[in-house]
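WARN no homologs supplied; continuing
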Amino acid sequence: MIATLLFAVGAVLLATGPVLVLRGRAGREQIQHELTTQKIVFPRVDDLPDALTRYAGLQVTTGEQALAFAELIGTHVTQATAGRTYAEIADEWQAGGRTDQRLGKLRETAFMGQTLRGSLLGAYQAWQITTLVAGLGCLLTAIGVAFLALGVTWP
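OK structure emitted
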């Protein structure tokens, strides 16, 4: 009975593992396709912080690059808003009767920058999840093989 159970669990895990690996790979390809179609390109090396110079001129196509570009956007938004958040600027603009055009434009800049940054961070997080899914698929496959082996050799 135990041998049959080990063999059955092993077979299920052995079937499930490769599916997870394929789903992780498909998810990664979809993220890569979406990032590629956005045609986001890092500026030249002179316009990048030292930590990002290795990306100069590259198109954003991976989760790591999406994170780096999100950091770049975050830096630019922080500089443009003097460290204030969209909510802080919006509150100030509303408190002033919504008539200050400079604050209105700054509010739009903060909103667009944070929205773009959030989208890129979402792509990075999705990229990380595809790595996790594929890794779990490999792990389940290995466990499945071990269970099958135990099921076959069980006394």
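The chain has a mean pLDDT of 97.
OK
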